[in-house]
Amino acid sequence: MRHLAPRLVPLAITILVTQVAIFPNLRLFGVLPDLGLLAAVAVAYREGPVPGLWFGFTVGFTYDLFLHTPTGLSALSYAICAYLVGSLERGLLRRGRWLPSFLGLAGGLVEGFVFLSVGLIAGVGELASVRALSIEGRSAVYDAILAPAVFGLVGLVLRSDEPAWRLRD
């Protein structure tokens, strides 16, 4: 994990600044995407469950500082979702053209479920509404649309510096 930190810290800062400063002006379907979640899912898909979990928790916790929900709620939901994707990637998922969009949609739905469920347990009453479910569903669709770009960015950041002939061994 330490070998990834020099690459993941600038990625996390870029994702967070983009999420907080740019995307509030780029609403689609009246909602915002979860760029931190998409990046965490992409890291988990590429590097495995533990790096994805740590990246998701870190980005989610930092993003929580800008929200009015309980601190740690996004961190927990991003971390759980990234860990699940990282765990399932090796055995179940095949590479394909639509995989980033599928993982973005599925990740957004799982994250939304965890976010709403834990938020309700924590006593955030406004999360118990049809409106909250609708927002999470629309946000998951937005995540699916942006997932190929975020997966591409994560791929560029985490690309290996090893020669191609070494990667095949």
In short:
The chain has helices spanning 5-22, 35-47, 49-64, 73-92, 99-121, 130-158, 164-167. The protein is mostly helical and 169 residues long.
Q: Overview of this structure, please?
A:
With 169 residues, the chain is mostly helical. The protein has helices at residues 5-22, 35-47, 49-64, 73-92, 99-121, 130-158, 164-167. It has a single domain, classed as Arp2/3 complex 21 kDa subunit ARPC3, CATH 1.10.1760. The protein has seven helices and no strands.
Task: Give me the CATH fold name.
Answer: Arp2/3 complex 21 kDa subunit ARPC3
- Which structural class do the helices and strands define? mainly alpha
Quickly give the CATH architecture. Answer: Orthogonal Bundle
Number of domains: 1
Summarize the biggest pleated sheet.
none
- Stretches with pLDDT under 50, minimum 5 residues: 162-169
- Mean pLDDT over all positions: 86
The outline comes out as globular
Tell how many strands the DSSP assignment holds: 0
**What's the CATH first level?**
Mainly Alpha
Report the sheet-strand fraction.
under 5%
CA-atom Rg in angstroms: 16 Å
Helix content: over 70%
Number of helices: 7
For the terminal residues, how far apart are their CA atoms?
22 Å
Order of helices and strands: HHHHHHH
